[in-house]
Design brief:
The chain is mostly helical. It contains nine helices and no strands.
């Protein structure tokens, strides 16, 4: 709005970012459709969303929107005040208004960064990436060893259908396991500890504390 039409928006409020801080650790999707479903059990139609990708400027150097695109955008904005009201309850309950204010200022900063771009020291970035990749490979190798020990201790895990297409029937198959998949991780954890309902940091900390493990000495990694 500022860059294209010289309109300054005061008091920017990012409903998606506020949803993220309110439900951090609960693995709640933060897209508008998912938020509407959670807050109001409302199914928001998002089929028109992809039509905005790679739009071309018209003859007067402005975008020309179709009626269906305008209706779609209007429906998106209509639900925002109701979402704001719901979120104020949570912000008050958990005393997070100051955090929300900081996050909303960040949203404006991020928009400027996305518009202008960010200067990057490519050589330093590549070196940092290389070093972190080496550390990641070491941790990943340790995780696969631990995973095989878990399956050895709980052989019934081999009978679980982890995804629609993935089931691990032998130790060799475990090399395909994705530690980045919350869906697969939670199936292992719930088999070992049924009380664990997500792989969020807070949930896992509660579980570890129930085992009398001092989580203060653990890194988030």
């Amino acid at each position: 709005m500022l860059m294209n039409y010289d309109i300054v928006l005061e008091n920017v409020y990012d409903t998606q970012q506020i949803h993220i801080i309110l439900f951090k650790g609960f693995d709640k999707p933060s897209g508008l459709a998912a938020v509407c479903k959670q807050y109001f059990n409302l199914d928001l139609e998002k089929g028109e969303q992809t039509s905005f990708i790679n739009m071309q400027l018209g003859e007067d150097n402005k975008y020309v929107f179709t009626d269906s695109q305008l209706i779609y955008a209007g429906m998106d904005t209509m639900v925002l005040p109701s979402i704001w009201e719901k979120q104020q309850i949570g912000l008050s309950r958990f005393r997070m208004h100051r955090l929300a204010e900081i996050e909303n200022h960040y949203t404006v900063c991020l928009a400027k960064m996305e518009y202008y771009g960010v200067l990057i020291d490519v050589d330093r970035l590549n070196e940092n990436t290389r070093l972190n990749k080496e550390k990641y490979d070491v941790v990943e190798a340790e995780l696969y060893q631990l995973l095989k020990q878990v399956f050895h201790e709980y052989p019934e895990l081999y009978s679980i259908q982890f995804t629609k297409t993935q089931q691990y029937t032998n130790e060799e198959d475990l090399n395909k396991f994705s530690f980045k998949s919350p869906t697969q991780l939670i199936k292992i954890l719930q088999h070992i500890a049924p009380q664990v309902t997500s792989v969020g940091k807070e949930e896992l900390e509660k579980y570890l504390q129930s085992l009398h493990i001092d989580t203060a000495n653990l890194t988030e990694e």
